[in-house]
Amino acid sequence: MPPSVYTKNLWTDKASAQRPSLVSVADEADHQARYIVEHVLEAREGGMTLKQQAVLFRAAHHSAALEIELTRRNIPFVKFGGLKFLDSVHVKDVLAALRWSENPRDRVAGLRVMQLLPGVGPAIAGRVLDQVAERGDTPAGLAAFAALLHASEDGPVLVALMSKVCSRESGWPAEFEMI
Q1: Is pLDDT above 90 for 152?
Q2: Residue where a domain terminates, one of 84, 111, 128
Q3: How far apart are CA 62 and CA 160, in angstroms?
Q4: Residue 55 within any structural domain of the chain
Q5: How many domains does the structure of the chain reveal?
Q6: In a domain, 158, yes or no
Q7: Buried (b) or exposed (e) across 140-167, using 16+ Cβ within 10 A?
């Protein structure tokens, strides 16, 4: 039996002569987000407050590129209907791994990454982070705990991943993809 279909009848009780516009951009995610942000800023310069503006999406996950662009430009926004993209757990995990690879003394990021491993809690993670900070090198600090980390099948994967990312051989987009 097919799922129920809900028709959407959008309406407003506010009158306006302005009609929606259809715009084509070269790259769907990146250019679309920049286009929207430019128009939001243009409207704000024209006297419309940010609270008077809205962007509608068919699904919450479609807003990720716009959320990143708004955050990058320090434009405050509120999202209704789902988590903000940058508040998603998996996105925070990726950002923590990138931050930790950039700064081995970032304990907050390191704790988050280390505790992703099964069986690694705050105490073990803290000891690993002490080694990483002492050596000033994430892969070397992780290697000091190789036996412990190899007890889990995910441990060697983390050590190899952080070694590749910290080596900076691949560059930014590839590092992101690896993580």
Answers
A1: no
A2: 84
A3: 33
A4: yes
A5: 2
A6: yes
A7: ebbbbbeebbeeeebbeebbebbbbbbe
